[in-house]
Amino acid sequence: MPSFDITFVAKYWQTLLMGLGLTLEFTAICIISGTLLGLVLALMSRSQHLAVRTVVRLYVELIRGVPVLILLFWIFFCLPVVTGLEIGNFLSAAIALTLFMGAATCESFRASLKSIPIEQYDACTALGLTNRSRTLDVVVPLMVMRAIPNLLSNTVALFKESSLASAVGTVELMYIGQNIANSTARPIEVLTVVGILYFIVGFILTRLVSIAESRVLSRLAN
Amino acid sequence: MQDLDFYFAFASGHQLLDGLKVTLYLTFWSNVIGLTCGFLLAMVGVSPIRPLRWLYTCYIEIFRCTPILLQIVWFFFCVPILFNVYWSGEFLGLLILGLNLTAFNAEAYRASIQAIPPAHHDAAIALGLGSRVTALHVIMPQAALNAMPVLVTNAIGAFQQSALVALVGVADLMYQGKLLSTQTYRPIEAYTSVAIIYLVISVVFGQIAGFFERRNELYR
After folding, report:
1. Which chain B residues are Cβ-neighbours of A70 within 8 angstroms?
2. Where are the domains of chain B?
């Protein structure tokens, strides 16, 4: 076994931290856009029109039925050909992960929508709330609160999936780590450090999920 | 936009079929590893010895808190150096996918074991059953039934995640699709065909799993 020297990675700490920053930034963008997409899709899945519901159903099945990697490659290689637009690697990775996150959050929101007791709707009718007010002031807040633990675990999943963006050349932690590993020919040390960086963030996020879970559960119990 | 020609995808069907075989091979063996080692690991996780439980938590957290792509790349680059072994890409691939699945399946087994009401333990004691009989005939059958849906979801997940090994050069379905697209300059047909194959297999397995799950619900 060749000499193992983890200290040499210290030379690259700034670059690696920058990579982590880019990963977090990229994750944050996709979380926001993906959650909004999921929210709209979940509300659409309650539509009275069968066609709208079917479209949402098909979308979710399609996105969840194919690996994220093929989704990403399809958008990166095929979407420019289909649309004639020049889509960079950052944008195509962002689109792919937004679509992925949209399908996942749609399912979370749908599950929490189902768990809202029917009495809440009756109460809205009894109070004479309009449709708009019922959706925006009653259903959406209730739904979001119930969905928080699930949304956070989707966030963890997305944070991990964001490493796939390196496959189309988006500069983030995984990409930078692989580049340093290749150019220094010291994969063990570099990739281990990259793993530790991912682990720290991932670990904090999963702890947040458990805290949120117990809080929401205790609030629902009251 | 150029004309679409899906005929060519059929013409190169054997290439995609070769890739699909590798993908299914990886999925099958990683599930064999994941189901058996996951179960053994869950036993470690529910053991009364505290250091063993720490070991369990470490294993789970390492695999849960890092991206699987990183795990795969780390494994492919570092295991041959660290242990001075030269295994084929397929073997390395099924090992790391199996180790990853082990962590997730162990959690599923552990959760389903702990979900069994304590009253069942009490009843087993009241009936004078030994700990071995209690484990084998009271706890395990129920736990297995409870864990089933998650195990199937994880299995389909492993099938989809196996596509990632294409990035480290294992000639699976994803890799063959990529190759086909660069060889023929027809990315749309190549990637769409590959996506359809993944989609059909995932959906079919998902439906089968859903059918059994509903039947189990009735059975209860």
Report:
1. 163, 174, 177, 191, 194-195, 198
2. 7-219
pLDDT in tens, A65-117: 999 999 999 999 888 888 888 888 899 999 999 999 999 999 999 888 888 88
Between CA B108 and CA B33 the distance in angstroms is 15
Instruction: Provide the domain limits for residue A175.
Output: 6-221
What are the helix (H) ranges across chain B?
7-11, 13-45, 50-64, 68-83, 89-114, 118-126, 131-133, 140-161, 173-184, 187-219
Nearest chain A CA: its distance from B167 CA (Å): 7
Residues in chain A within 8 Å Cβ distance of B74:
187, 191-192, 195
Q: Please indicate, yes or no, if residue A1 is contained in any of the structural domains.
A: no
Give the best residue of A23, A76, A78 to mutate against chain B (max B CB count within 10 A): A78
pTM listed for this prediction: 0.87
Query: Taking CA B156 as the corner, what is the angle to CA B32 and CA B146, rounded to the nearest 5 degrees?
Result: 75
Distance CA A87, CA A79 (A): 8
Q: What are phi and psi of A54, to 5 degrees?
A: -65, -40
Could you tell me the fold of the domain covering B7-219?
MetI-like fold (1.10.3720)
